[in-house]
Design brief:
The complex is a heterodimer of chains A (142) and B (657).
Chain A (H helix, E strand, L loop, with lengths): L9 E6 L3 H10 L8 E6 L7 H9 L4 E6 L10 H19 L5 E5 L5 H18 L4 H7 L1
Parallel strand pairs in A: 1-2, 1-3, 3-4
Chain B lengths: L5 E6 L3 H4 L4 H9 L4 E7 L5 H13 L4 E6 L2 H14 L7 E5 L1 H5 L6 H19 L9 E3 L3 E5 L3 H12 L3 E5 L7 H5 L2 E2 L4 E2 H14 L3 E4 L2 E9 L2 E8 L14 H5 L3 E3 L8 E3 L1 E2 L11 E2 L5 H5 L4 H5 L12 E7 L1 E4 L4 E2 L16 E3 H8 L20 E8 L14 H15 L4 E6 L9 H9 L4 E5 L6 E2 L5 E7 L4 E7 L1 E6 L1 E2 L4 H8 L26 E3 L9 H20 L2 E3 L5 E3 L9 H5 L5 E6 L2 E6 L9 H5 L5 E3 L4 H13 L3
């Protein structure tokens, strides 16, 4: 961050069947989006537990995006519904920590390369407006 | 973990990666990461020499982890896993890093940032790789039978190919006869073959084949199990005719006083309330339509029951269900034409003499409502001027964006119908482009162009109005001459857009098959695997994958059948590598994992006096829901353990430098 503009660091969890494929499609279609996103592949968004999200924030991420198949489209029948329920619970915890704006859940299908680029751009800009989180620095200084 | 020995391989992918970032510099960066023994870059890592480079290194440097930074793992993960296998390593000691789709293809405007991102992704993979371990899979037998859903030309071809390979086939068709859209066509382009003459012998072959069982007038209502062992529930809709008794003599149809619009004739003309789908129906068994039957609507008549010589009429018949057990499923449910009344400017549904191409097929068919004469619906007169509108609803932002892929060639065929039926007619074809791409299409196009009184005009009609005499008037801007033309036509034929069938969406969700933006089934790879899906054991045949003409549909269906045959004859399915695994020492037997498992793959069992979770390796599909839910960390997912994911997350969150 030596230059003027704050470049957020965003960790993205993407399910193999819909979202990761959709993100791949953005690549194949050469649809540009901010470089700030770092994608972690899981087989299903239902694999993402709160610890992974909190770990990302604690270790330096400014925002976390969880992506999965649209409701009804889960490759594993109901994984995304589990994700959704877990996400709402996690949001309650994040709210108490003042971090609820930094985590978002989005549905990206395998054909939504363009939608992925919009979601990524929007989220990165959103986090850029919020500013750096610096949880890692705060926690290591205590 | 003291002896982790990692090799990192950065691919240029020609200019795809190497044109944006410097792979040599990235490889040099990777060489300084912990546990990395060797790090290289190469022009095409997936090529033979690229693969040999990795294979040799594994032996030379005694590597036990391999990281390949290249394209998406969805592309070449199996390629590089095979390299590890050849070198004697377990394939799951490979970690792919996606620096093409996720980096260079999308961040070429900021090459510095792209390079930094590639380095961080590799650093995260290096951190993760230290925690990889060997994974073994189990094998389960495959049920050597297949379900084909849809009995159009795609389903017919797929069913015959499967059956001829010795596989038991269940063919489920929602209508009472197989044949599909092709049965409704009069002729086929570009050869002008009689459609039914080439189709009906195949329909008979299907009916006679000892390995094929047809479930007509039936629907798939539930699918469970998995590749190699699907359980399929099929609903047999009530036909009110006991087909096991019915001989197909047709006396009931002949005597029935009820009348209903004919679906087979696209709403033109009438059929009886008890009816065959069409003359050459297979199976040739009638169905009572309770919406029009006098017994069902008014409690009178029962003529069919009185005349039936074998007592097959059964007004009390209820829907029935059968359970099928199959190893593979071929989806061949075809397409529907786009509802032309949605294009209000063309007046379809409002003006009698605006018809669809499929309706023209029915008019041209000797078995159709006009016995093969092309006549106006408003007054039964021969149309002297006919306008054919191409791309009606297709390639249109407001309706359907994609091309229907057969409208152009069908229109050429329709010119033939019209000129053949009304030789002194004038035919105007309003086109956007004439896409005569198939074998023999261009020659056919040139032939039709050379006929007298056939005019090709490049332009789409504006709003169509009806004149007092039932003819249609409209303006067209001819983009070739730059002139506005005023047209008066006796008949307008719309070559309509094509959409997936309405019943596809619920079926798609049962099968867990993704869809493309047009709603058609999403293939596994658009070029290399166009007849497979992301769901193992489920194959696509014909237009449900996207619009196709008949030759392409048949080729696609045969390819789907071949893929299904290969899958079934291999004889076994392997468990997924991403299985849930239990650390029994940590497990408290609470059962939360079992409660979230969508496949009932987890049971809680007594072991040495306490309760522990047990995973069925074949049932488990590797979603990881149980691992995310386990409160003690006892349940883990192979290749996606907490430690593996967290080490990757931590590096990506904190940066590599």
């Amino acid at each position: 961050m030596s230059e003027g503009r704050f470049e957020p660091r965003v960790v993205v969890f993407a399910c193999n069947w819909c979202s990761y494929a959709g993100i791949d499609l953005a690549g194949t279609s050469r649809i540009k989006y901010p470089h700030n996103v770092r994608i972690v592949k899981v087989m299903c968004s239902g694999r993402v537990n709160p610890e992974m999200v909190l770990k990302a924030l604690a270790d330096g991420a400014d925002g976390v995006l969880i992506t999965g198949c649209h409701p009804g489209d889960c490759h594993y029948i109901s994984g995304n519904y589990k994700t959704m329920r877990r996400y709402f619970l996690l949001k309650k915890l994040l709210k108490q920590l003042g971090l609820e704006e930094r985590v978002r859940l989005e549905w990206i299908s395998a054909s939504e390369g363009e939608r992925w680029a919009r979601v990524a751009t929007d989220f990165v800009e959103h986090i850029r407006r919020l500013g750096p989180l610096r949880l890692k620095e705060v926690m290591s200084s205590e | 973990m003291s002896d982790v020995r990692i090799g990192v391989y950065v691919c240029h992918c020609g200019k795809n990666i190497g044109g944006v970032i410097n792979p040599a510099k990235v490889a040099e960066f990777a060489s300084r990461l912990p546990n990395v023994v060797v790090s290289r870059d190469y022009m095409y890592m997936c090529s033979s020499p690229g693969q040999a480079l990795i294979e040799d290194d594994i032996k030379k440097y005694n590597l036990n982890r391999v990281i390949v930074a290249a394209c998406s793992p969805r592309m070449h993960e199996p390629t590089f896993q095979a390299v590890l296998k050849r070198a004697g390593l377990n394939p799951w000691l490979l970690q792919m890093v996606n620096i093409r789709e996720h980096v260079t293809w999308v961040h070429e405007d900021t090459p510095d940032k792209a390079e930094e991102k590639a380095e961080e992704l590799i650093a995260a993979a290096v951190a993760r790789a230290a925690h990889l371990y060997e994974i073994t899979t189990e094998k389960a037998p495959v049920v050597k039978s297949a379900l084909v859903i849809g009995g159009g030309i795609a389903g017919i071809r797929a069913a015959l190919d499967l059956a001829n390979a010795g596989i038991k086939v269940y063919l489920v068709e929602k209508k009472q006869s197989i044949g599909g859209k092709m049965a409704q066509l009069d002729k086929t382009f570009p050869t002008l073959d009689c459609s039914k003459c080439i189709l009906t012998p195949l329909m008979v072959d299907v009916a006679r084949h000892p390995n094929i069982e047809i479930y007509a007038y039936s629907e798939v209502v539930d699918v469970s199990g998995s590749a190699g062992d699907f359980k399929v529930k099929v609903k047999l809709k009530p036909t009110y005719v006991d087909w096991s008794k019915c001989t197909g003599c047709g006396l009931c149809v002949e005597k029935c006083p009820g009348r209903a619009p004919s679906e087979f004739n696209e709403g033109l003309g009438f059929r009886k309330a008890i009816y065959f789908e069409f003359a050459q129906a297979v199976p040739r068994k009638p169905v009572i339509d309770p919406r029009y039957c006098l017994w069902f609507t008014k409690g009178i008549c029962r003529v069919c029951s009185k005349v039936c010589p074998v007592g097959a009429i059964d007004y009390e018949q209820k829907e029935r269900y059968v359970e099928l057990n199959v190893g593979a499923i071929v989806v061949a449910i075809g397409y529907e034409i786009y509802d032309m009344s949605k294009m209000v400017e063309y007046g379809y549904g409002k003006f009698k003499n605006v018809i669809t191409g499929l309706q023209l097929e029915r008019l041209s068919d000797a078995d159709g409502p006009t016995k093969g004469k092309i006549l106006r619906l408003s007054d039964g007169k021969e149309p002297k001027t006919v306008a054919i509108v191409l791309c009606a609803g297709s390639r249109d932002e407001k309706h359907v964006k994609y091309c229907c892929r057969f409208g152009c060639a069908a229109a050429l065929k329709h010119v033939y119908y019209i000129k053949h039926s009304v030789p002194d007619s004038k035919v105007l074809i309003f086109y956007t482009d004439v896409r005569a791409f198939g074998k023999g299409f261009e020659e056919f196009y040139q032939k039709v162009r050379s006929w007298d009184d056939v005019y090709f005009i490049r332009g789409r009609p504006a709003e169509i109005f009806e004149d007092k005499d039932g003819s249609l008037v409209f303006d067209v801007y001819d983009s070739n001459t730059g002139q506005l033309i005023n047209v008066k036509a006796d008949l307008v034929v719309l070559e309509s857009a094509v959409v997936p069938p309405k019943d596809w969406e619920p079926l798609r969700r049962l099968l867990k098959v993704s869809c493309d933006p047009g709603g058609f089934a999403l293939e596994l790879h658009p070029k290399l695997r166009p007849f497979e899906t992301t769901a193992d054991g489920i194959f696509l045949a014909g237009t449900i994958q996207g619009p196709k003409d008949i030759p392409d549909t048949v080729a696609h269906a045969a390819a789907a059948a071949a893929a299904a045959i290969g899958f079934l004859l291999k004889g076994y399915v392997e468990s997924v590598p991403y299985l849930a695994t239990v650390n029994e020492d940590l497990c408290s037997g609470c059962g939360l994992c079992a409660s979230v498992c969508p496949y009932d793959a987890i049971t809680i069992e007594e072991k040495e006096g306490r309760r522990v979770a047990k995973v069925n390796m074949i049932r488990c599909k590797g979603c990881g829901a149980c691992a995310a839910t386990c409160p003690s960390g006892a349940m883990q997912q192979n290749y996606f353990t907490d430690t593996q994911i967290l080490s990757e997350v931590s590096t990506l969150a904190g940066g590599a430098k």
